[in-house]
Amino acid sequence: MKAFLLDPAVAQYILDHSTTPDSLLADLAAETRAATGDRAGMQISPDQGRFLTMITQLLAPEVAVEVGTFTGYSSLCIARGLSGGHLHCFDVSEEWTSIARRYWEQAGVADRITLTLGPAAETLGSFGQPIDLAFIDADKPSYPAYYELVMNRLRPGGLVLVDNTLWSGRVLDQDSKDTTTRLMREFNDLVMSDPRVTVVMLPIADGLTMIRKN
Ligand SMILES: C[S@@+](CC[C@H](N)C(=O)[O-])C[C@H]1O[C@@H](n2cnc3c(N)ncnc32)[C@H](O)[C@@H]1O
After folding, report:
1. Contact 63/159 with Cβ under 8 angstroms?
2. How far is the CA of 70 from the centre of ligand 1 (A)?
3. Ligand 1: does its nearest atom lie under 6 Å from the Cβ of 53?
4. Domain spans, the chain
5. Domain 8-213 class, CATH top level
6. How many CA atoms lie within 13 A of 152 on its CB side?
7. Whose CA is nearest to atom 7 of ligand 1?
8. Which residues does 205 contact at the CB level (< 8 Å), separation at least 6?
9. Mind listing the pLDDT tens digit for each residue in 70-117?
10. What is the pLDDT of residues 135-157, one digit of tens each?
11. pTM score > 0.90 for this model?
12. What is the radius of gyration, based on Cα positions, of the chain?
């Protein structure tokens, strides 16, 4: 659990009282650590994964979009929550998403996922379908572009989920002046000033912002 905000005992209690990931997700997390080393920290946490599955089940989207697939943990969680809809994944890495493809096959959800490789600012720009649910978890400098591209296609009542919006708490530490922290602050302010949406920021993992188009 990436719970830097919580007392470790509280974080453990939450984990102990939330449905645990199954063996396939546990295997994927282990393979990601073995294959990518420190990069494995980019993977969403198990509690976030459970949350993504539940939100997808509740919304029952026809069209879901993920920007930033890596080795497939979040996409697997979204795809497992679908009931007849389709998930469109966008990433640049053939190497990392080849792991994702294997796990989609093993989970029996490969037929409900389409992966497009390439810079998402371009590939998402040519995506033509109305979107019901989007998860943004890719390169931080492009968050405003991804947000706008998704918003252009999001149906009213649709939901955008954005990861890492607390950036380990650095967004509220005025001594943190690095580029990514500044970008995340600017992104959070941009969303808050957008009259098209209603926003809830959740302290799950590294901060998960829920943005509903009005
Ligand atoms: C934080 S990871 C995604 C983690 C993933 N959601 C998971 O749960 O495992 C970020 C991903 O964004 C991808 N990425 C980086 N720059 C990109 C770009 N310009 N267009 C599309 N994907 C990009 C990386 O290849 C990486 O797989």
Report:
1. no
2. 5
3. no
4. 8-213
5. alpha beta
6. 12
7. 43
8. 1, 2, 3, 44, 45, 47, 48, 163
9. 999 999 999 999 999 999 999 999 999 999 999 999 999 999 999 999
10. 999 999 999 999 999 999 999 99
11. yes
12. 16
